[in-house]
Amino acid sequence: MNMRKGVVPWLFAAMVMLVGSNVAAVEGEGQPAVQQAPAPAGVTITIDKTELNNGGTIKVSGQAPAGKPVFLEVWAADHSVRANRFDSEVDKETGKRPYIFYITEEMPAYYKIFAPKDMQAKIDAAKKQGRKWSYSAVLKDLGAEGAYTVPAKTKIDHFQSTLMASIVGSRGDLLPAMDDKENRKRSMQLVKARFRSVDKVFAADVDVKPDGSYTADIKIREGLSPGKYKIVAAVDKATKSEAATFENKIAFPLVYLDNAGTSLNIFYPFLLTLVVAIFGVLMGAGGGFIMNPLLLTLFPALPHTIVAGTVTPTVLFSQGSGIFNYSKIKFINWKLGCSIGVAMLLGGFIGPKLTEMITLDQFKFAFGWILLVLAALMLWQTMPAYLAKNKKEQAILKEFKKRAEEAAKGKN
After folding, report:
1. CA–CA distance from 101 to each of 157, 209, 350 (Å)?
2. pLDDT digits 0-9 by tens, 11-23
3. How does residue 10 score in pLDDT terms, banded at 50, 70 and 90?
């Protein structure tokens, strides 16, 4: 009996457990098993070196959530430059020209987003658009909005100008600060205005595997700013890696030009300027009008505003020595020179402000036409028919030649 009493409760308990398990099986039949979703994985990043000498290649690798595209945001952390844009295009909604000038002093001297390799076709499509390509459109097409952060945080000032004010190069009245959304939008336009080319701000070099691992060879071109650079791997706004840091070093004869945001071998422009100055002074000029297009052509990394501003004071050196030598042979008419010098003084105030209001293409177009007109006038004045009708000019040329010969004899 005692044995039966001990067995009965055990059998009862077993039956209850068996029935309960069967009921649970029947209730759960045909329904998915309940699983807890894993926490979203982060992104890791590793670089193979921490130092470059005037550019080179950085090998980047890491791990991201599987099945997600990986973007690399790379920028110069130690040096910033100015970026500006004058919005004078007709607004599609209002049909009016806004005449608003945007400017920031905090644009990274180097900035680029590297996308997965399979997105190369989208970048190529943007290149085919020529000057009409849109930074925001490319960013959206690549799905890289989450990787775009550094320029979006720059402080941007904007000014309300007018047509007349823009003609004389005035920035206009400072407007209230923009909200974060508008600031981000305008920063994209400034990135394009600063770097101009699609290739300079986008590349498709990231190789992403199905398991989320990725690698990339990041090429840092020669002639960039020295100092620290940072790389961040991003999947979206919330999923990013810590910043990896490397340093880009340069040494003489490379010289970093702070306001241009680029490094330059100083010997090349030195030799170029020496040749230009000789022929420039020979024609009664400082050589600036020759140096300007040459620098823009041979050193495309230099912004046109920097070229125009830099060439101006260099003319002082050639003009100074030219004034001294021309005065010795008495070829200077000071009354005429001082009279037109007043106009030069006025133009010197307007010109620099106007330069930052126009784009590189507008600058080249205007400068090219000026050179063509000057060349046509000088060519016309050397024609026999012109010289025959201007006996007075011939007499002046003979007098100048006579004085030059006498000055040469006096030196000998």
Report:
1. 8, 44, 16
2. 444 443 444 444 3
3. very low
187: tokens are 């920063």
Report residue 127 as tokens. 């290149």
What is the C-alpha separation between 346 and 344, in angstroms, rounded? 5
Angle at 127 between CA 126 and CA 130, to 5 degrees: 100
What's the chain's average pLDDT?
A: 81
Cβ–Cβ under 8 Å, residues 203 and 122: no
Residue 279 burial class via C-beta count within 10 angstroms: exposed 0-12, middle 13-18, buried 19 and up? exposed
Token pair listed for 363? 């600058």
> 159-196, pLDDT tens digit by residue?
998 877 766 667 889 999 999 999 999 999 999 999 99
Cross-strand partners of 75: 111, 230
**Which residues are CB-neighbours of 165 under 8 A, at least 6 positions away?**
99, 171, 172
For residues 87 and 99, the answer to whether their CB atoms sit within 8 Å is: yes
Whose tokens are 């007109």? That residue is: 373
Nearest in space to 248 (alpha carbons), one of 79, 113, 55: 55
For range 378-382, the mean pLDDT: 72
Domains of the chain, CATH where assigned: 46-250 (2.60.40.1930), 266-380 (no CATH)
**pLDDT of res. 366:** 74
Q: Which of 206, 32, 174 is nearest to 103 (CA)?
A: 174
Residue 296 binned pLDDT confidence (cut-offs 50, 70, 90): confident
Question: Mapped to the 3 state alphabet, what secondary structure does the chain carry?
Answer: CHHHHHHHHHHHHHHHHHHHHHHHHHHHCCCCCCCCCCCCCCCCCEECCCEEECCEEEEEEEECCCCCCCEEEEEECCCEEEEEEEECCCCCCCCCCCCEEEEEEEEECCEEEEEEHHHHHHHHHHHHCHHHCCHHHHHHHHCCHHHCCCHHHCCCEEEECCHHHHHCCCCCEECCCCCHHHHHHHHHHHHHHHHCCHHHHEEEEEEECCCCEEEEEEEECCCCCCEEEEEEEECCCCCECCCEEEEEECCCCEEEECCCCEEEECHHHHHHHHHHHHHHHHCCCCCHHHHHHHHHHHCCCCCHHHHHHHHHHHHHHHHHHHHHHHHHCCCCCHHHHHHHHHHHHHHHHHHHHHHCCCCHHHHHHHHHHHHHHHHHHHHHCCCHHHHHHCHHHHHHHHHHHHHHHHHHHHHC
